[in-house]
Amino acid sequence: MLRRLHCSVLVAVWIVCGTWVSPVRAETEPPEVAQARELIKDNGRTIVYFALPSYKYVSTGYNDYHRLSDGFELTYTFETKSTWRTNTTHMAFYFDTSGQFDHCRSVRSTTHYTPFTDAVGKKLLAKQRAFMADYPPVKDSRALLKISDEANSKALCELYLKLEQAKKNAAPGRVGARTREPVLGLFTQVAPVPARVTEFERSTNQPRAVVLIHGYRPELDRFLLSRPLIQDWQEADSFMVKILARDADVYAFAYGQNAPVQDVAGAAELADGVARLKKMGYGDIVLLGYSAGRLVCRYFVEDHPDAGVTKVVQVCAPNTGVFWAKFTSVIPLTQKPFVASLTAGNCKLCQQTRDGRTIPGGVAFVCVVGDAIAHSDWVVPCRSQWSDDLQEQGIPAIRLKVCHLDIVQKPESIAVVARAVREPAPRWDRQRVLQERHDILRD
Prior knowledge:
By secondary structure, this protein is α/β, with parallel strands linked by helices.
């Protein structure tokens, strides 16, 4: 009797325990969740680029998804680094029931600093701590998230994801068709700094707007090459911007360098930005192009003579190309189309295929020629900076004894460039061109 009772108790305990520890079958994810997860995974670097601009992407980790009444939520962990600190940010992405991306938000962010005690001396460690104390985004991750929200960078991230999802949902093109990677542009205001990045603010009774357009930039990262990055001389705290901001509102245009220069000139962001400036009431819109940025300026005004641009200032511009653009073997594959468009042959071919377009008569035009050594600025020959076709059109030129890299950095050169922006630049007659040609090109 006791043996039967003992066996019954063991069977009951086994049934209860078995029921209690039996695994719960995981719910099968719907295909919409899998598609959404791939969307976030494939665009991890771009999400960090827009949502956390102060950090560099390292990796993306998938956490989980949760059902909601009107869709579902995906949570991801992004690991980023910047010098001596590692940041881990948890972000939530929301999709509707059909799998269409709606919005995202930052859940939390933590920062871990690399210990320097064993690697460096105490003096350097003290400098690092002093820097962190003076720079709030480094000191506190929550401050970084707040600054990103104020700059509306999350909205740019959301817009990018919606565009990427729209591309995936679009009907596939013809099999075997060659597609050119689109040019990404960024048109932003740098002085006075607006309350939000996506908005422009015109100073009271300010008639002039200056748009700074950069040139070639050395870069090895393929991802960064195709993204628009503001250069140091275009930033709000640069000497160039501070000088120009004395009598103008200053804007900057940046672009990805994954396409020929003529494609950059046709970027929608540049045309839309100039149109916004014209609509805001600026009577004087000046494009200041440095190096390859001069080609962007020239092609733009030739293609859009009625866009509202009143003046173009070229600074060390390769109008007829540069010889070093032939050496594309040392250039990243993504950047080769951009550099190849700067060769003498391609510049000449581009001018021939542009139906003989010239500088519009209503647009003032001036060339700032850098002459450091051997009739060049170490990068672009003087004859390319003030080319024969520009001389035939009576375009004035200003000669400076400065090298290519210093002309947008040295105060004395920046003062001359600012004067070229501010003062009128009437066309020269043939006699004046020949006279100045002897002084500038030493013919």
